[in-house]
Structure formats: structure tokens, C-alpha cells
Amino acid sequence: MDLFTAKAATTESLPLRERAKQALKDYFGYEQFRPLQQDIIDSVLAGKDTVVLMPTGGGKSVCFQIPALLKEGVCIVISPLLALMKDQVDALRAAGIGAGALNSAVSQGEQQDLVMRCRNGEVKLLYLSPERLLSDLPWLKQQFTISFLAIDEAHCISAWGHDFRPEYTQLHQLRSLLPDVPIMALTATADKITRRDIIKQLALAEPNVFVASFDRPNLSLAVKHGLGKKQRDGEIADFIAERPGQPGIIYCMSRRLTEELADTLKAEGINAACYHAGMDNTSRERTQLDFIHDRIQVVCATVAFGMGIDKSNVRWVIHYNLPKNPESYYQEIGRAGRDGAPADTLLFHTVGDLVLLSKLAAESGQPELNAAKLQRMQQVAEANICRRRILLSCFGETAANDCGNCDVCKNPPAFFDGTVLAQKALSAVVRTQEEAGINMLVDVLRGSSRAELLERNYHQIKTWGAGRDVSFADWQQYILQFIHLGLLEIAYDEGFALKITDTGREVLKGQQNVQLSTLVHQTREEKKQKKEARQKQRFAQTVADDTTPEEQLFQQLRRLRLSIANEEGVPPYIVFSDRTLREMAAELPQTEEDMMAVSGVGRHKFELYGQVFIEAIKSFAGGNTDSQGEASVSKKRARGDSYRDTLELYKQGLNVEEIALRRQLNPTTIWSHIAQLYLNGEPMNIKDFVTDGEIAKVKIALEKLGKVTALKPVFDALGGDVPYHKIRLAMAWIEKN
Fold this sequence. Notes:
Elements: H1 3-11, H2 16-28, H3 37-45, E1 50-53, H4 60-70, E2 74-78, H5 82-94, E3 99-102, H6 108-119, E4 125-128, H7 130-143, E5 146-151, H8 174-177, E6 183-187, H9 192-201, E7 208-211, E8 219-225, H10 229-241, E9 248-251, H11 255-267, E10 272-275, H12 281-292, E11 298-301, E12 316-319, H13 326-333, E13 343-349, H14 351-362, H15 367-381, H16 387-393, H17 407-410, E14 415-417, H18 419-431, H19 438-446, H20 451-455, H21 472-484, E15 488-491, E16 497-500, H22 502-508, E17 515-517, H23 524-543, H24 549-568, H25 572-575, H26 578-587, H27 592-596, H28 603-621, H29 633-651, H30 656-663, H31 667-679, H32 692-705, H33 712-717, H34 724-736
Parallel strand pairs: 1-6, 1-7, 2-4, 2-5, 3-4, 5-6, 8-13, 9-11, 9-12, 10-11, 12-13
Antiparallel strand pairs: 14-17, 15-16
């Protein structure tokens, strides 16, 4: 009997909501749903058509995987890429869930076996490509009951979506083919127009629409402006050197750039590879598999790379060039930190990229729409207030406060009176008859004598050389600010010539002042020091390990995970996520109960890998226990340190979610720390987190159950009315009082 069948037999008598929570813990190792997940699952279980907008890494998959386990029949999942299907099927099987995929890689015999397993109830989720769906569906619906349809990446069906795919358009036939089967549409990026179009194209019947917050607070946001290729390459090498061994993706605008950058990074000793649509299928697949299996650290890729990547431990994403719209940018940075642990993003923004993307937008099939989306992306990149607030506004979401986790919040820009600089530039625009592009304008201001400038007699105008004291790169950045402030605009249909606006004329006449943000520069000596520091860091990594014991254990657990993954032929993150390993390294679980309390450790994964990881942790921590089975001194010291770290952040006024994010732990673990700190006599008002009524309920349950230390019997006795973390807090209060 497989895990699913066994669990189904023991939980059928529970209410649906309780069964959903139990499935979440048993299969995925989490005690609580993320915001909206429970409501979405309720909608699907009620048989309603459902639309889900949730950011990449926000937990969309759970929204259809849990109902698939609880409903009779098989959930058919429409997914656009073979690699994504394989990743999800592997992950579900590793969690003990019956899943399979029908695609071109499956033989006739394997297909018949898979359908038989669907008919027997051994498979609960069947993945199909949109191309296979309509040809296979008439036959499949005769073989087994279809519980509901889940359409992933649903924005691909809409011509308004940023990633429209013609093969998705045939999905409009689903409603007539399966009139009584509920349809669930899921996407990470869809504005209101796209959302309405999805509902129309799929003929959804009064669907429940759920729009989750697009805020991913674990992602830091940063932008660097106006750097040339050589400078960008150096910045990227520094960035990676500061994150040894952490997997990341660098998105580039062109195929050539991906190849050149990968070669540059290899020369720096970084394990990198390129990926683009011009490579043959074998080379692309090898790069993707090497990245997924942690055999390479960095992929330099065009946007062709990513939709099929379900890798949860990508720790950073860099954009070498400005993305064409906020949707693409958000989806691409969302591939970092899918496990919920902190991750970094960096975007390089130059005038040249903006000019090229503007040209592409003007030549596209929807020039006005694409130009408007590019302008929104430009606003994100050029923000001088909280960058996340502007980004979230692109998705119709208003943030109440600054995020504190973007470069603008961390280093607010200083401003100066740039009116004179603006007047010099605007005067030069007028005197060149508004025919000069950005680079030509800078050359005029700096007094260049290049041939084209002399041919146009620009060296004879009054403002020639008026700004020779400002560097070429700085003038580019100031002109970018002038464009953003609405003083200048680019005429894309006139060779990208700069035109002065009405506002610009007011500035030129002295009727308005201009505030510019200061530019940060590195001196030649600072650049040299940075390069030397990078070389020293790389050398130190090869000869010594001066990291903390917790970091050492984390790296040891990563190596164990990689070994297991290689033996089983699956990506390492499918065994356990980085965040789960970090929690193990912080908490040092040495019993089954301790290990099952770690976020991300479900019943099936514990049975597969739990004991191996416990032995590794025991070996690291000393492996000794006292006569009562308590952990060794080294473990106690480590746990004490972990509790103190939580206490310090609590004293700083951070809430539980903020502490969890800062410490790269699950909120459940932080609740456990708070309960223990309270028992240890620390000055914590535990009734800020659990009410007298909840404590009374737990006390009654404990009186009925007798002496228990585990939380689940209490949770079950209360019918799921009191969450696990509140039971833990209530038990701490009862024990102490």
C-alpha cells in the first residue's frame, strides 16, 4: 500500500479542511498554508471554476496538488514544457504522491501502464502538454474519472499576456469537451486585461478569482546604472565571489552576450555555462540538467531559459540588460528564492538598452501597449523611492510601507540642484535642431572632435564643450534622469533623436529648477582593492574554512543531499530544499519527532531520508546523549545560540515573519523558539500571541489526553480549531503557570 492510499484510509472521516491540512504536513512537510492557499483549495474542492494569480515561488502548485489528493479521480495538469513536467512529477513522487506525465518522451507501453495506474487510483495528477491534450482527452475521459483540470501558465492563452503561445489557444475547446469538469487557471503574471481574457478564452463559469500579494519580501532588489560592458562584468564577478557556491541565473538580451559573459566568468574561475535558443537541443538540455543538478553554479541565458526551472534553491538572479516589461522582470527574478529563504536580484540599466527596447516596442505588433509596459519598467529601474512599491504598483498592488529590502531603502539617494546641468543639455538639444541622439549630445557637451560631429558643424554651436568637466558615463546618467523627469523625450521614428518637451523649455528659461540624484563612483584605487579582495577570498576558500559551525553543517548536509540526489537521479532540491537544510543546521534535530518538526520534512521524505540526515547531524554535533536522551552539550550550546538569535531580533521589535525571513527559518520554528524562551524565563508576553480562550481549550484537551508532549494529538482533539503554533505556546504557558 503506497503512502497516499494509507493516509487516505486513515483521514477520510476528517472534515475536508482538516484533511487538506493533514495532507500538507504529510506530503510537503508544512504545518500551515500560505495566505489564500486554503481558500483556493476550498474553491476547487467545492467544484468551482477558479482563477489563481500568485507570484512565482508563491505556492501555486500546492493549490491544485492538495485538491487532487482529496478529490475522486485524476487531476489533469496542462503544463507548457517537458522539463517543468518532469520536475514536478519527480518532486511529487519524492513526496509520496502518485503522478505521471504523457508527452513525446513516453513510449506506448509506458503510456498504457500510466493510464492503468490512473484507473486504479495510484496516480492522482497527470501532466499533459497543450499539444497532446485535445488529441488524448477524448480517450482519457473514457479510461478514468477526471476530477478537474489545472492549467498552469494560463496567461499563455491570452494575446494580451506577455508570453502568448499559439498552442494554448486550442484550450478554449475544453469547456465543450468536458462541460461538467471544473477548470482551474493559474498564472504568476496577469494584469486585469489578461485576467479577463483568460476567463473569456476558457469560458469559465462565474469563477472564483484569487489574487495573491505579489510581494516577495525575501527577494532583495537592486539596480546599477550606466555601466559599460567591462564594468558590468567586473561587478558580476564581485557579486558571485561574495556568494560562493550559490546557484544563480544571469539574463542577457542577446545570444552573443550569454556566450561572452559565460567565457568571462569561466576565466575568473566561476563554473558557468550559457543557454540560448540558437544552441542545439542536446546542448541546451545538458546545460539545464547540469544547473538543476548543481553541477554548474551559473547560467548566462536569454529569456528562453527559466519557465521550465522549478529549482527552489536559486539564490540570485541578475539582469544584464533592462527587461522589456515588469511582468517579464518579475517572473524572472521570481526564479530566485522559491524556497522562501533570502535571495538577491540585481538589474543593470543603461540608456543603450532603453533605446534598443524602445525600437523593438515600436516595431512590435502592439506598439502602444509594449511602449507603455517598457515605460513602467523604466520607472522601476529609475526609482528614487522604494523600488518594491513601484514594482508592486505595476500589478495593481499598493504597499503600505517602504520595504527596507531594496537598494533605495538601504541607501536613499542624495539630491542636488542640477538646473545648470539640465540647461546646458537642453540648450545643446535646441542648438542641434533636435536631431542629435544621446551619445552625440554627450559628445557635443564634452567638446568631442569626432568626424561625424565636425561634419554637422556641431563644434561651432555655443554649448559645444560646455560640459567637458563631466564624464561621458555621468552625462548619460543625467540625460536618463532628464528623460525620466519629462524634460526630454526620444523620437524613436527619427533615428532616436532627443526632443525637448514643454517642461524642458520651462527649465531652459529658468522657470523651473531640477533636482538630480547623485551618482556613486568608484575610484581606480577602490576598483583595484575590490579585485584584490576577490582574489584573496577565492584563495581563502581553497585553503581554509573559517565559517560558523552552523554554516559548516549546512554545507555538509548539502553534500549529503547531492550524494543522495546523484544516486537517485533527481535534482538535489527535490530531496530537501536549502531552507529545510538551513533549519536542520540551526535546530540540530536528532530524533524522529524533532526532524518531523522541521519545515519541509513530510512523512514520506522522513521515511526515505530522515534517519540518514539525523545520523549526519549527530555525527557533527558529537553524537552523545545523556541518560534522559537529551542532546549533547554541543547541541545544547548550538540551540541556545539559535534561541538567543531569535530573542535579539524579537527585542528589536521584529514580528515572527520578519524574524523567520532574517534567520532563514520557518515561522513555525520561530514560534517554537518563543515558547522555549518563555519557559526559560525570558521577558516575553506570550499572551500577545495566544488568547486565554485558546489556552483554556488546550488545557481541557490535555486533561482528557493525559500526559502528551506531541502537538498532533492535541490538534486532533480540538478538531483543528487551534493552530499548531498556538498549541505549542499554550502548552508553554500551562507548563509554566
